[in-house]
Design brief:
Oligomer: single chain
Number of strands: 2
Radius of gyration: 52 Å
Helix content: 40-55%
Order of helices and strands: EEHHH
Shape: rod-shaped
Distance between the termini: 139 Å
Structural class: mainly alpha
């Protein structure tokens, strides 16, 4: 079985070092690294044209930015309008609650204003009303029980 040489690395901080490195002897000739080609940083003219902004592209970008700015402004306007309407709705709901509580208080005060005895005293003493005597009340059957429409005098008791 042939012996394989394995290079093992470990990390110490941010630098990776090679384990079991054998230092080179000065008597051994150093291997010269091949020289890399020198690259020039000259840019071809067609590349400059590709990056240049032409009028059509510039107008498209300006129109897109204008549309986006207008849409954002309209969105802010609508949000302000919704906020105002929500505030108005809350104010109206508060007014409705106040009116309902006032209505309930008035209803309670009307219910407690007069008792049955008070109504009887006012009817008999101030208005001159009297209870009906025997035979003055006439009962009859009606086809429609919701209301009664009188076309003529009520007949006398038989």
């Amino acid at each position: 079985m042939s012996e394989r040489v394995r290079n093992m690395y470990y990390v110490d901080g941010s630098a990776a070092r090679k384990m079991n490195v054998v230092p080179q002897r000065e008597s051994e000739p150093r291997v010269r690294e091949p020289q890399r080609k020198k690259t020039t940083h000259a840019v071809p003219k067609s590349f400059d044209k590709a990056l240049a902004f032409n009028m059509g592209y510039t107008m498209f970008v300006v129109a897109a930015v204008f549309i986006i700015v207008c849409a954002c402004g309209y969105m802010l306007f609508m949000e302000a309008k919704v906020s105002d309407q929500q505030t108005h709705i809350n104010e109206m709901e508060a007014q409705l609650e106040n009116i309902k509580s006032d209505n309930n208080a008035m209803g309670v005060s009307l219910e407690n204003m007069y008792t049955i005895d008070d109504i009887y005293n006012i009817a008999t003493n101030e208005l001159g009303m009297v209870y009906a005597k025997k035979g003055q009340i006439i009962y009859y059957d009606s086809a429609n029980e919701d209301y009664v429409k009188q076309y003529q005098d009520v007949p006398e008791a038989e």
